[in-house]
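User: hey, got a sec? need 5-formyltetrahydrofolate cyclo-ligase folded
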Amino acid sequence: MPTSKKELRLYYKNLRKNLTPDQVEELSLAIANQVLQLPIWEKTYFHVFLPIEEQKEVDTEYILHLLSGKDKEIVISKSDFETRKMTHFLLTDNTKIKKNEYSIPEPINGLPVPSETIEVVFVPLLAFDLLGNRVGYGKGFYDKFLSECKPETIKIGLSFFKAETKIEDIFELDIQLDYCVTPWKIYQF
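Assistant: Yep! Here you go:
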């Protein structure tokens, strides 16, 4: 079984590639239903990633519906690949979204929201372990972003697959999750 970030990245990219669009939809809906069980609903500012369809990421549209149904402030981001920083914007009815050169849907403009304001972050990932460590695409965008949030910000990974026992090569700067939601189970760290 793969245990290094590099091996896990490849392994899970392949697993995701083999999911059908129907499976992605079904599993994403199951994840959204699990999210309802989390103790996060007294919070106001929720950061949600918009999925890269080509990478078969968890479709967060169902979570967006939950949040808007509960009148939450929804925050989405734009990534700067030169500085590896993310800037955050309030998602409103007027927000225009366009895919960047990496097929990431991003807001073109909007009301900026500082990282410190965000109370809950839904984090994309490829794999995670029983300790709350995660493997992303390796660019460090989320570790940088999460380090700018308040320490009490709730970090929730979303995964189609179950936890690995342990990811071997974790760095000090890697930020651990508080929860990871899968279609069948919520892991709490």
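Quick note: The chain has one domain: 5-188. Let me know if you need anything else on 5-formyltetrahydrofolate cyclo-ligase.
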